[in-house]
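Render this sequence as a predicted structure.
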Amino acid sequence: MAEEKYMRRAIALAKKGSGRVNPNPLVGAVIVRDGQILGEGYHERYGQFHAERNAIAHAKAAGHDLKGSTIYVTLEPCCHHGKQPPCTEAILEEGILEVIVGSDDPNPVVSGKGYKILREAGIEVETHFLKEECDGINDVFFHYIRTKRPFVAMKYAMTMDGKIACHTGDSKWVTGEEARGHVQILRNHYMGIMAGIGTVLADDPTLNCRMEGPEKRDPVRIIVDSRLRIPMDSKLVKTAGQQPLILAALADQVQAYPSKQAALEKAGVKVLALPEKNGRVDLQELMRILGEEEKIDGILLEGGGTLNESMLQEGLVGKVYCYVAPKIFGGEQAKTPVEGCGKDLAADAWLFRRTGMQELGDDLLIEYKKI
């Protein structure tokens, strides 16, 4: 009978590839025989060996013969030649007897075919083992492979009374150091980070990843700036040569200010001229371009209340990271995470289900996924 501890170890290994395997999925693998772990591995970096081959290499380096063993893998083994040869071939070559899998691969070139190849070769295959937990680590990959649109996760930090800033606009700091450190992990995980021009004008952020070490990755910055109001001396524009910056503006505004467009592009900014929808940038078209043309598979939305509400209205938010601090700001005019008009009726609320919760110092992080 399959044991959960081995798959949970594979899940933990898979997460170690965060920020380095896009647009591939996070995958971990553990090889076991007679209650002993023979080898383990994960997909470490895009273009390099997949989890199964890394686990096999680890086991063989320790001198293990893998005949008659069981491999636990978080995602259906690939069966096609891409940047790496098929993992199904490696499993068959080593005489592995049983394959236990968590998630099905939605990629049409793999989906179901990996299982079929293994079963036809006489391998015992068990699927959907701890499926929900395995699926949970690949929200970005599953959404992107199916839609070619970025998976969007909205993040905000608020007080107990639901404020993201005081009525004066001051917001440093809502949460403590541990919660702010966790945000940097998210910035490393998601390929893109998105904010609105209001956030830029109010805070002059850099929107980089401040993790330590060589494995950290700065996200592509995407600013929704309908009327090209971004200052040329902002930190974002000044660092556009070192960290990619995409500016999404209305096409008529780009045409109206050619000198501003030219100056931005000279500074290294990519300016997207987009159609208008309800007086603002067409967010659906923006997501299409970011996914299909820019190849951005996931976005951390760190917008203010206006952009957050627009993204929700368009049905573009798939996940929410809600950090709650043990503070109360009060104030009728204090900003909240989602502003705009919102919903008219409680029955029409945007619905999410809670998928995780953890303490970060004195703060609480609650994770939700769109229903």
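Summary. The CA atoms of residues 224 and 248 lie 5 Å apart. The radius of gyration is 23 Å.
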